[in-house]
Design goal:
Blueprint (H helix, E strand, L loop, with lengths): L2 E3 L5 H4 L6 H5 L23 H32 L2 H26 L14 H11 L2 H14 L5 E8 L3 E8 L6 H4 L3 H8 L5 H12 L1
């Protein structure tokens, strides 16, 4: 299965349903903050415990709070037949829902060194990266370059499968809340160090699942 990167795309945009808001609304459910699969300090020194706690408990939680609030407002608007409000809520639902999805994947994209964080991808994903990008080093260089050059904030170059659909394997958060307390305005240092705790095992499992 081929791989690719999507510069400056969020997972929200991957989930758009061709403008069919009726299909978009169906099946939406409130969400809750997922537990991290490791302690806040487990990624040190690459990412500090303070950043991880704030990022998870405050920033991710804010996306969830705003998403759930927008869903409540959506239910009320639909019950009243208020089409104008229903349309206006699309943006908040997509933005905050996308933020929740992005972060939920991001936590799984990271792992402590003692649990395999930073170990290069092997087997099928390793071969696919070599085939598509030349080498893992070339992929890392591309993502680091694009991430450092990204104006403002966002998510840099999600690595995705390119089969019947686009399935995210890896994404790096370059919003300032993900690194500023530790790295200040030196984003390239953050990008360089985060590879020490990237969970390629998770990305490989997702890739192989989609390749079946």
């Amino acid at each position: 299965m081929a791989l690719g990167t999507l510069s400056r795309k969020t997972l929200t945009e991957l989930g758009r349903n061709g403008g069919n808001f009726g299909g978009f609304v169906r099946g939406l459910r409130t969400v809750s903050l997922p537990d991290l699969p490791y302690d806040y300090g487990a990624l040190e020194p690459a990412i500090s415990a303070e950043i991880m706690q704030l990022h998870h408990q405050k920033h991710h939680q804010t996306y969830i709070t705003n998403y759930n609030k927008a869903l409540e407002q959506l239910d009320e608007a639909m019950a009243k037949g208020d089409a104008s409000t229903v349309v206006k809520l699309q943006s908040a639902i997509k933005f905050n829902g996308g933020g929740h999805i992005n972060h939920s994947i991001f936590w799984n994209n990271l792992a402590p060194v003692r649990e395999g964080g930073g170990e290069p991808p092997k087997a099928s994903l390793g071969w696919a990266i070599d085939s598509q990008f030349g080498s893992l080093e070339s992929l890392v260089k591309k993502i680091n370059t694009d991430g450092a050059a990204l104006q403002g904030s966002g998510w840099v170059d999600p690595l995705v499968t390119k089969g019947t659909g686009l399935v995210p394997l890896l994404g790096i958060d370059v919003w300032e809340h993900a690194y500023y307390l530790q790295y200040k305005n030196v984003r390239p240092d953050y990008l360089s160090n985060i590879w020490k705790v990237i969970n390629w095992k998770y990305a490989t499992e997702m890739y192989e699942k989609e390749s079946c």
